[in-house]
Amino acid sequence: MSESELYVAGIGISRGVVSTIVTTACEKVEGVARVGGNDIASSLVSVFTSRSVAPEAAVESEVVDGSLRVTVHLAVFYGYPFTKLAAAVRDAVAEAISEQIGVEVGAVDVCIDSLVFPKE
Q: How far apart, in whole angstroms, are the C-alpha atoms of residue 108 and residue 61?
């Protein structure tokens, strides 16, 4: 079994594909500034290229007891309650994985790694 592939429900899925699906779902949630933490390298790449670093760095996925478990690291905008934002992210990710991959989502863990303040 490859480190870059997950095997669930009788199919092999690239971790990169899972990361792309999760990233796309998260970016649609109001209050999410970007997928990815607050490390300096990813922030600089984001600033100078207007896109984020490889989603694989911000999304972790594994198969546990036959279902997919995902951890996503986010930067969020100031002013959005974390618990409501995390619930919206969990729902969006679970729905996207269910629709695109067709497998059960065991858990979606949301890590809020940084806070983005509006420019004044």
A: 9
